[in-house]
Structures are given as C-alpha cells and as structure tokens.
Amino acid sequence: MRVVVMGQAAFGEAVFRRLREDGFDVAGVSAPAPAGGREDPLWAAASSAGVPVIETRRLKEAEGQEAWAALRPDLCVMAFVTEIIPHEVLELPRLGSIQYHPSLLPLHRGSSAINWAIIFRRTETGLTIFWPDRGIDTGPILLQRSCPIGPDDTVGSVYFERLFPMGVDAMAEAAALVRDGKAPRIAQDHAKATYEPPCRDEHAAIRWHEPADRLYALIRGCNPQPGAWTTFEGQRLRIFDCRLTGEEEPGMPGRVLRVEEGSFDVRLNGGVLRVLRVQPEGGKKVGAGEWAREAGVAAGYRFR
C-alpha cells in the first residue's frame, strides 16, 4: 500500500521510519520547510531516504496539491500536523487520511490537549487515531489507547514517556488496519466533547491564593510550554520543575519559606511548593536556588 506521511518533528520522523520498517511503500512526505539552516527531522529523514518531500504549506496551493496527488497515495498518515490543511487534500488518497491526536476524543479537542488534561487534574489520558473531517478533531475514531497521568507528571513526561512511543505504535497499527480492510469508523459522542484553546501565557499566570493541587496542576500542565509564570520585580519569572510536598506551614500564600542550594520553598493554600527550576524573563532556565540567591530572594519574600 502506498502511503504518504504528513507531519513534522521527531514524532513525524519516527512514524515515517516505522511505516517503512513495517513494509509500507512511503511514496512521499510533507513537512515544514528548512528554516534558519536547520531541517525538520521528518524532512531530513525523507530526503536522506530519497523520498519526495513537499512543504506542508504548499498543500494549501494548487501547485502543491497537484504534486501531492501525483504521488498516487492510497492513504495519508498525519503525524503531528499543525497547519490547517484543506479537506480536499485529505480526500485525495484512495482510502482517505488518518490522524493522530494526543487525547481520548471527544475529550480535549484542540492543539493543547495534553496541557489541559493535566491542568484539569485528570488521572488518565491517551491517544486517538481518527478519520479527519471538516471539523476540529471531530471525525470518526479508528482506534484509541489510554495511559495514566501521575501526580507529578508534566506535559513533557506524559508525551515523551507515553504518548510518543504509544503513538508511533498506534499509527502503524492503524495503517495496517486500513490496509487489511479492518479499520472501523466509530462516530464520536459530540455531546461529551470538550474543546480548549491553545494553552498560552494568558492561561499560565500563577494565582498564589488558589488551592495547592490546582496551582500545582497548572504548573505541570504548562511545563515545558508555555511555562507557568509569576512576577518578580515587574518581570515574569517562569516556574518549571517543582514538587508539591504534603507539609503544612504557616504564612500567606506565595511566601518564600526557605532558600536551599538547589531549590526554594513557597507556602501554598494546602501545601508547600518546592521550586527546582525557573526561567527569568530574557534569560535561560536555571536552578531555582541559584536564581533566588542571585536575585536576592530570601525567606519572607512574598510572590503576589
């Protein structure tokens, strides 16, 4: 079966390589064009293998669409696609297109599915391979796989430790089901759907008065992007790696309790936040204790 892969980054590259290993005839690839002297991993892998590559944005234009159709694909496998692709392009392959989404649809439609699952303090998420239609993540489901969200998980840990490797396996399995004529089309229950916007700075502001578990979930759900933030001397300070302890200590929420070599502790409503890694505005990520000492932050200072 002739497949084309539409995607980008390490996930797109991994799916491309897996399909070839599984014996699929990968006839072409679409990926973001090289920028700043750097090639996208999927673009680089396809070029190295001698597989034709079309810039994804060109699929919005007649010339690019004609080149895509000329590949004569049976199936399009969409692995991490952020561009809005015309539906007509997705219908070009003889058997249509299938797409990866990192949630258990119809929950968490949209581009920040992992972020919001953690921010909403869910204990389970997963992935869906579905048949895209004209809506946003609304098409029929081909297959789903679930995984836990641990109490200290971040977007990075859930994705790289679970949803990435599970997703590569699921995309290969889904393509095989299509090839063998066994791929279902299970309608989503739209009454149970949730949709959240892209998780951006406007959603990532830390409100120190909120309950500890809610605040901790926000920080984890914004790590590594966009980075939950508070302010220090009028500038944003992003908090990344941290841990919520079960301790109860007196003081106002946001008050620094102690500064240690690799961390500083902040009193919350319902616990203590041990901050391990931060990023000052305009700077790089650094150890939290190092930043606090250099910034002159000591026990008693209060973030607001």
Automatic annotation (TrEMBL):
CDD domains: Met_tRNA_FMT_C. Keywords: Protein biosynthesis, Transferase. The keyword Transferase applies. InterPro entries: Formyl_trans_C, Formyl_transf_N, Formyl_transf_N_sf, Formyl_transferase-like_C_sf, Met-tRNA-FMT_C. It comes from the Bacteria. Residues 1-159 form the Formyl transferase N-terminal domain. Residues 201-294 form the Formyl transferase C-terminal domain. Belongs to the Fmt family. This is Methionyl-tRNA formyltransferase. It comes from Tepidiforma flava.
